[in-house]
Each structure stands twice: as C-alpha cells, then as structure tokens.
C-alpha cells in the first residue's frame, strides 16, 4: 500500500519524536493504533453488510472488484493476455537474420 523504505521510516520516527516529544510519543502511537483498528472494523462490517444486502446470488462477489483498476485488468486485460497467447501459438517461428518476412498487401 505504502512504499516506505527504511530511511523514510526512520525519518518519520525522528519527526514524530521531535513533534510529540519522547514522553507523549507512546500515548500518540497507542491512540493511532486504536483508531486504525476501529477503521478496519468499520470497513469489514461495511463489506459484510454489502454482501448480506446483495443476497446469495452474489456470494462470490469481491468488494475489491469495484476498484476501476482491478475491473479493467480483470475484464479487459485478461482477454488481451488470452488473445496474445493464442496468436503467438498460431504464428510461424521467426525467420533467421537477413531473410525478409512475406509481404501481405491486405495488412498494409
């Protein structure tokens, strides 16, 4: 989700230490963890409510499929991958270096 390297994480820790101070930092970290846990619980309950509301017809429905990136990848790009594999199998092998491929007037 987040691409945070070791150096960036260390910088964030130092900034948090400077901003909140060494005595307040554990308290702030505890509150942030509690808030994150509550957000995850709310998101999971919303997913379950959505699945329950859709009924048994959509038992295999994945909420992540609503993401536009995943939708395009699943419904459009998978078809292209299948097409590429089929067309690659149907093509003739490459010619040795120096030979010209056959000319197809309909393709140009």
TrEMBL record:
Gene Ontology CC terms: membrane
Region (Disordered), start-end ranges: 85-108
Database matches in Gene3D superfamilies: 1.20.5.3310
Record Pfam families: TatA_B_E
Subcellular location per the Swiss-Prot or TrEMBL entry: Membrane
Membrane topology designation: Single-pass membrane protein
InterPro entries in the record: TatA/B/E
Gene Ontology terms: biological process: protein transport
Keyword terms: Membrane, Protein transport, Translocation, Transmembrane, Transmembrane helix, Transport
Principal subcellular localization: membrane
NCBIfam families xrefs: PRK01371.1-4
The name this protein goes by in its record: Sec-independent protein translocase protein TatB
Highest classification ranks of the organism: Bacteria, Bacillati, Actinomycetota, Actinomycetes, Streptosporangiales
